[in-house]
Amino acid sequence: KGGFLSLSALFGGFACLFLVSLADAARPQFDVAEAAYRTLDDERRFDGVVQAVQRSTISAQTSGEIVELPYDVNDYVPKGAVVFRIDDTRQKAELEKAIANVTEAKARLEEARSRYARNRRLIKQNAVSRSELDKSAADLKSARAQLEQAQAAVKQAREQLEYTVVRAPYAGVVVERFVELGEQVQPGTRLGTGLSLENLRVEVDIPARYVQRIRTAARARVRKPGGGWLQAEKVTVFPYADPKSHSFTVRVQLPQGRHDMYPGILVKVAFKVGERHDLLIPARAIVHRSEVTGVYVIGPGQRIRFRQLLVGRDAPGGMKVVLAGLSAGERVALDPVAAGIALKQQASGPAHE
Fold first, then answer.
1. What is the DSSP string of 91-133?
2. Mean pLDDT within 165-187
3. Distance between CA 76 and CA 259 in Å, rounded?
């Protein structure tokens, strides 16, 4: 009998250990997060149009024939790239002539300087008259002026030669071209128009009731066409309303650089108008099943339930606003796939029965 009791106790102990092991195995093995309230920006969203801050038309500053057009309309042009080249034969000849004139002017100046110095020595010996000395001084002054004029002509001729090569003042796109190869141009002739894709802004028309709050907050985000948001660098509210629409224009400066934004496209702009307290959960916890949106809620005793939710806008840090279906402090599974598997195991296990 004693042996029988010992065996019963032994097998009973194994059974307890087995049940505990099963309970541990059934416990969900995934991360969870608590729904919690956070203070967020209260925003209003409006449509806006992207504009290029830098848009300019390049004109010729010298005359000649167009001999090179490396870029066509809609081509992207790096900063400093040659966009137009004008025949420089005449400009090179004028520069060479101007340099030769400087050489001659220097020689005349040296001769005038030597003559003046000699007359100054001779007048002390009464070998030349005062009028001869004055004339040599005037010749020296004239020679200096002629050299300065010749040097200025070299500078101007060099500038004219440089003007035969027209470079892009900034990186951007050619939107218009007004000349073709072989055309003769004069100073002032329009060559082409370009705009920058790296310095953009958005203009938005805002109802008057939001203007003061937008001006006070001075914060905005712009939604990119491919998804994601850009924080505006500056928000400028025009100090007057349109007399026809009675709306105010707000200009939103985008960060410098390429952001897959292009002049002329329509984008959504979210302006801060105050603050609000919203219930948030990580967006990765949310499950979309056809038309149903929900999460796996982890309740007391690690019980899993699928809960349908009504969700709102995105929030910073990969979070999502919950409008209905969840309370603060409730825990949600961060791995919906693992939670779904655990829910099926829970439904078919002994605890379910």
1. HHHHHHHHHHHHHHHHHHHHHHHHHHHHHHHHHHTT-S-HHHH
2. 95
3. 15
Burial-class residue 281 by CB neighbours within 10 Å (0-12, 13-18, 19+): buried
Cα(23)–Cα(349) distance, rounded to whole angstroms?
Answer: 10
- Which letter does DSSP use for residue 244 in this model? T
Report which of residues 146 and 18 the model is more confident about. Answer: 146
Q: Please give the Cα distance from 175 to 194 (Å, whole number).
A: 5
pLDDT in tens, 207-221: 999 999 999 999 999
CA-to-CA dists, residue 228 to 39, 109, 265, 287, angstroms: 21, 70, 16, 20
> CA 51, CA 175: separation in Å to the nearest integer?
14
Task: Provide the 10 A C-beta neighbour count for residue 230.
Answer: 21
Q: Enter the pTM of the model.
A: 0.62
Distance separating alpha carbons of residues 333 and 335, to the nearest angstrom: 5
Rounded to an integer, what distance in angstroms lies between the CA atom of residue 217 and that of residue 208?
15
Which structural domains are found in the chain, ordered by start? 27-39+278-348 (2.40.420.20), 44-53+197-276 (2.40.30.170)
Strand order in the sheet with 55-59: 55-59, 190-196, 172-177, 76-77
User: Which tens digits make up the pLDDT trace of 266-309?
Assistant: 999 999 999 999 999 999 999 998 889 999 999 988 899 999 99
Angle, vertex CA 75, rays to CA 70 and CA 80, nearest 5: 60
Q: Burial of 136 by CB count in 10 Å (0-12 exposed, 13-18 middle, 19+ buried)?
A: buried
